[in-house]
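Sequence design from tokenized structure. All designs in this work follow the same two-part layout: the structure record, then the generated sequence. An example of the structure record is given first.
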């Protein structure tokens, strides 16, 4: 029986290395764009979650609870299969970025909300006494202080987001997992394909994870 890691299979992979490089590039770009979207969504909904208005808090809870309690795959499938039925046709890459950004935006919102609540209430009261509005207080006083608390968990979210880009493979997203699986299916060389794919994901996630732990240790020391 031929080994799943036979040398000729590795040779075939090295010959087609551009396929993996293209997929890796798509994974990097989609990760970066989805992370930016998640940070924007998460910051907005995180701030809403700390508002004194019940309606704003309600919007925050509905979004967070719905997104966090439904699988990412279903959300991406809805964007991929559902939107065309209402006349909205989006490129697969856009669907991936949108799905990942919205999904991780819900987790970022909780991180931001917790970070804001960790800032002393006296800071908010002092800002109001100086005539700052709610959004001015958040922008100039609270969020800059909350960043120190939320940065380590945000880095962990970035790691999870990179790994979750593999869901694009289920809608032919052209990402690393999709290119790897397609190549392996054509050649029946699954062993080398999945080993290299795992190492490529590791090359992104491991440095981020180590950086997150470093930030956590630093924040514990300074606390």
């Amino acid at each position: 029986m031929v080994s799943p890691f036979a040398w000729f299979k590795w040779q075939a992979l090295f010959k087609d290395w551009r396929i993996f490089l293209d997929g890796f590039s798509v994974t990097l770009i989609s990760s970066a764009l989805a992370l930016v979207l998640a940070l924007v969504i998460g910051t907005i909904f995180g701030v809403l979650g700390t508002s004194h208005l019940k309606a704003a808090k309600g919007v925050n809870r509905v979004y967070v609870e719905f997104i966090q309690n439904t699988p990412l795959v279903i959300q991406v499938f809805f964007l991929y299969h559902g939107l065309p039925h209402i006349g909205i046709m989006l490129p697969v890459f856009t669907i991936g970025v949108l799905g990942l950004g919205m999904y991780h935006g819900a987790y970022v919102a909780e991180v931001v909300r917790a970070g804001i609540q960790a800032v002393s209430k006296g800071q908010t009261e002092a800002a109001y006494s100086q005539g700052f509005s709610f959004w001015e207080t958040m922008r100039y006083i609270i969020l800059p202080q909350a960043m120190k608390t939320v940065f380590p968990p945000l880095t962990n979210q970035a790691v999870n987001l990179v790994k979750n880009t593999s869901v694009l493979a289920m809608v032919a997203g052209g990402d690393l997992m999709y290119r790897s699986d397609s190549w392996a299916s054509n050649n029946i060389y699954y062993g080398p394909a999945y080993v290299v794919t795992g190492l490529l994901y590791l090359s992104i996630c491991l440095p981020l994870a180590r950086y997150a732990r470093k930030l956590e240790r630093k924040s514990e020391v300074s606390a």
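The radius of gyration is 21 Å. We note this feature because it recurs in several other targets discussed in the main text.
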